[in-house]
Design goal:
Blueprint lengths: L3 H11 L5 E8 L7 E6 L5 E6 L2 E6 L5 E6 L11 E3 L5 E6 L2 E6 L5 E6 L4 E9 L5 E7 L6 E6 L10 E2 L10 E2 L7 E6 L3 E6 L4 E6 L15 E6 L5 E8 L9 E7 L5 E6 L8 E8 L5 E8 L4 E7 L5 E6 L7 E5 L5 E6 L2 E7 L2
Parallel strand pairs: 14-18
Antiparallel strand pairs: 1-28, 2-3, 3-4, 4-5, 6-7, 7-8, 8-9, 10-11, 11-12, 12-13, 15-16, 16-17, 18-19, 19-20, 19-22, 20-21, 22-23, 23-24, 24-25, 26-27, 27-28
Length: about 350
């Protein structure tokens, strides 16, 4: 039987014929600071990279640096810790207990929104179509609880906070907001999936203990990554496999209807995935047709998989052993390119209909 990574290499060679083109790699920087996130502009002309204490704006797809800003303290977890305004003219960055604003054209400061002392963390934010912001914030003494809030550009909170269930997963593995900031999804206690209609503050929460076998310790699966679809109707959850699991056809990813909690589809792990794996990140294409999966297999190896949600087919684009990046996947605004990041570089993959 062929090994998992042998299969990956074979599948990668077939990817061009199966709907994905080859990769183009661009160098981002010479330093090896940790990459916290990357966000593509709505107009498709640029993208922002958050790396340790720096914020970089680069052209898309060439990757030419337009400007670089040193920022105070450390930026927060997750690709959505920075967000572009709908017109791509401004960038907002969550940083400790405040939001910083920069002009996208030249990186000049455009003000900030400081929060009171109860807010210690702003891990995710999104511009809404009316110019306000949807935020997930850490507030209070319990560091496992976040709140969903709406703020305006003048720093006024517009509605009461919506408390989310306590979490045990890494906030950096979430893609919680729809592009227009109208809905948000979250994970609680590694087996709860929730969603909120931001404007109406309607909240849904589902206990997925049964499909995740959470009461069977040797076979229990935990949610490690999550992304909400562009239309806000479903969320994809990325799972982990325990090394002593006896289950057959263990799901790698599940798609869940956020209003009913029902499973829409589940994708099993590839054959010979090994005794230990987990999904590190997920990303939907803007039209909701594709789902990118960053998969860690027998650490530190990883792979990049793209699922066609209409046909159910999948393509293994690459693995780190074969020389490509798989982390922080994100689609271009037109959905024709998938970009991933690692080791000071970005890999771009053509996505074909």
């Amino acid at each position: 039987m062929k090994s998992w990574f042998t299969r990956l290499i074979l599948f990668s060679l077939l990817a061009v014929l199966a709907g994905c083109g080859g990769q183009r790699v661009i160098k981002l920087s010479d330093d090896e600071g940790r990459l916290w996130g990357a966000v593509l502009a709505p107009d498709g002309a640029s993208f922002i990279v958050i790396k340790d204490r720096t914020l970089e704006m680069r052209t898309w797809p060439a990757g030419k640096r337009l400007w670089r800003q040193e920022i105070r303290g450390y930026p927060n977890y997750g690709p959505a810790a920075a967000a572009f305004a709908p017109d791509s003219a401004e960038v907002a960055v969550g940083q400790e207990g405040r939001i910083l604003f920069y002009a996208a054209a030249d990186g000049s400061a455009r003000g900030e929104i400081p929060f009171d002392d109860s807010v210690y963390y702003v891990p995710y934010l999104a511009y809404r179509v009316d110019g306000t912001f949807a935020l997930l914030v850490g507030r209070g003494e319990d560091k496992t609880i976040m709140f969903l809030e709406i703020w305006d550009r003048q720093g006024v909170r517009l509605k009461e906070s919506v408390q989310l269930s306590a979490h045990t997963t890494d906030w950096g593995q979430w893609q919680p907001f729809t592009p227009d900031g109208s809905r948000a999804a979250y994970v609680g206690q590694a087996h709860l999936l929730g969603a909120v209609d931001v404007a109406q503050q309607t909240q849904w929460e589902w206990d997925l203990s049964e499909p995740l076998h959470f009461d069977d310790r040797s076979n229990a699966m935990s949610i490690f990554a999550m992304a909400i679809s562009p239309d806000g109707k479903e969320a994809a959850i990325g799972l982990s496999k325990r090394p002593d699991s006896t289950l057959q056809d263990i799901p790698l990813v599940m798609r869940v209807d956020v209003q009913t909690g029902q499973t829409i589809a589940a994708f099993s792990a590839p054959v010979d995935a090994g005794d230990l794996y987990k999904v590190d990140a997920l990303a939907y294409s803007p039209d909701g047709r594709f789902l990118a999966v960053d998969l860690n297999v027998d650490l530190p190896h990883s792979a990049l998989i793209v699922y066609n949600l209409e046909s159910g087919s999948s393509n293994v684009l690459c693995n780190n052993e074969h020389g490509c990046c798989s982390h922080k996947p994100a689609f271009s605004p037109d959905g024709t390119t998938l970009v991933t990041f690692c080791d000071g570089q970005a890999a771009q993959w053509e996505i074909k209909p």
